[in-house]
Amino acid sequence: MSAPRLSDRDPRVDADELVGAMVPPPRFDGVRFATYLPNPDEPSQAAAVQACRAFAERVSAAGAAKGFFGSLFRRAAEEGKPGLYLDGGFGVGKTHLLASLWHAVPGPKAYGTFVEVTNLVGALGFTETVQRLSGHKLLAIDEFELDDPGDTMLVTRLIKELAAAGVAVAATSNTLPDKLGEGRFAAADFLREIQSMSAKFTVVRVDGPDYRHRGLPDAPDPMSEEELLAKADSTPGATLDDFDALCARLAQIHPSRYGRLLDGVSAVFLRGVRPAPDQAVALRLVAFGDRLYDRDIPVAVSGEALSELFTEEMLRGGYRKKYLRAVSRLVALSR
User: A Pfam family in this protein (predicted)?
Assistant: First the structure.
């Protein structure tokens, strides 16, 4: 009996589920500050742990005083900034630290990737999103990015509204906040909004090599067609899809439903992998890869290697860091 196909699924997620699902991915259920092991050769990592601990304590202590963080916006120079921003390369443990911070703060609180937060606004509308999140102590945003002018305006406004309601914001990214959007659209036209948002964050640098590639072999070679089919059929809970068919299906599903698409899946097998034909497909693959990584679902392929998903032209463009992060994660899953 052949393995089922992801491209045959039709996942559904209602608004309440979207809000309720705003928690760290299962792979980060057990992480805490104490489980983060700083690289002794990278002193910024130990410093980042201390900065995150202090921020968590500040948010927790201020939880009962509604409006505390709103007042910080007015007194940033005296009291410190109301947001914490972890900047660093791939695989240095920024998500580990962000999830640890989230665990350290009492609820109500929310955690999501940047894409999940914007998807939430798309599903609920801006006003309802603010209403649902304004009672939270903390909003943690992983992989913060601004890919277009609409997102720039949306996120700056959302942060302003939530901060005025007393919500603290912590974020991770591979790009300093005043550089977000650079190379992706006419950032100069939106410089005021970008700087307004970045001024709300204390930036903490986290340096170091990508732990996912530290001392590990390169990604395995793609399987032969016969080997892939046999492995998929013998793996309980696995799915098997033609790469092009899956890409076509992802175009029909809102990215907020990609996680539900993977419910109950133990491994993903893809036939005929090739470089993404255009930017739209590539960005959907990034979002899909993030959901695979969140759930720690192994990936095996035939055709081209996963490291070849994005063309050289794509890797030279404004989404370079996003694509490199996706390669880092997918290669880790393919091992």
Answer: AFG1_ATPase
Tens digit of each residue's pLDDT, the chain (335 residues): 578 999 999 988 777 788 888 999 888 999 999 999 999 999 999 999 999 999 999 999 876 454 444 444 444 433 557 789 888 877 788 999 999 999 999 989 999 988 788 888 887 889 999 999 999 999 999 887 765 567 767 877 898 899 889 899 998 876 655 555 554 434 444 455 556 666 778 888 888 876 655 554 567 799 999 999 999 999 999 999 999 999 999 999 888 788 889 999 999 999 999 999 999 999 999 989 989 998 899 999 999 999 899 999 998 887 887 888 888 889 989 98
Which CATH superfamily, name and number, covers 31-209? P-loop containing nucleotide triphosphate hydrolases (3.40.50.300)
What's the N-to-C CA distance of the chain in angstroms? Answer: 26
Distance separating alpha carbons of residues 224 and 247, to the nearest angstrom? 21
- Rounded Cα distance between 63 and 321, Å, is 35
Tokens of 61: 């202590």
Q: Which of 261, 256, 252 is closest to 112 using CA atoms?
A: 256
Do 112 and 52 touch, CB atoms closer than 8 A? no
Handedness of CA 204, 207, 210, 214 (dihedral sign): negative
Beta bridge partners of 240: 269
DSSP result, 2-32: PPP-GGG------HHHHHHT-S--GGGTT--
